């Protein structure tokens, strides 16, 4: 049996989008290098509000192919039919999740704050032949995902890091026993009390492991229910 992820229209769409993400990242790296050569002090990683359009509205902030393949395999192996995504961005992760939903006869419900990103993601889903497997709600996920009805089998968190905990808490009552919760960028957290990394690895409701993948880190959690 051929995996949906190997379908030609999906492969072409992912290659295009991942190429755009790489090109953007390389352009930003060159700009940082130029700043350094000109003596401009480098800025460390700081938290910026997700509503700061100058940084977030046009940034891909995308998972890489290795992360995407793992996400697809986890969702497919879990038999996930109702998948919720926080932070669809330009839709690369949504494509992987929608491919798993196609295999599982399921549906993805995503949330994205910026209209231009949502429209881009929906166009990519159309190009990949996966429009029927995903919807992306526009706005703050604390509002757009508030009325999600269960059962939810799989959650992917990849939006504003300060919202991981409130978004997950808003969904936890809809999770099926054994549901999977995957979060990206766990290396962005200091693991201080109150942040997502500190709380998820200690939450007795979940079994959690941290997994370095590519340049980032996933947390993979299973809900004990």
Model description:
The model has no long low-confidence stretch (mean pLDDT 91). This protein has one domain (65-223): Vaccinia Virus protein VP39 (Rossmann fold), CATH 3.40.50. The protein has helices at residues 8-37, 53-56, 65-77, 92-104, 115-127, 141-144, 164-171, 196-200, and strands at 82-86, 107-112, 134-138, 152-157, 175-183, 206-213, 216-223. It has a seven-stranded mixed beta sheet, with helices on both faces. Helix 3 (65-77) packs parallel to helix 4. It is of the alpha/beta class and 225 residues long.
What attributes does this structure have?
7 strands, seven-stranded mixed β-sheet, 225 residues, Rossmann fold, alpha/beta, 8 helices, single chain
Q: Number of helical segments?
A: 8
Low-confidence stretches: none
- CATH architectural designation: 3-Layer(aba) Sandwich
Largest sheet: 7 strands, mixed
Give the strand line-up of the largest sheet: 3-2-1-4-5-7-6
Mean pLDDT: 91
> How many domains comprise the coordinates?
1
CATH homologous superfamily placement = Vaccinia Virus protein VP39
Q: What is the C-level CATH assignment?
A: Alpha Beta
Cα Rg: 17 Å
Strand content: 15-25%
As an assembly, this protein is: single chain
Number of strands: 7
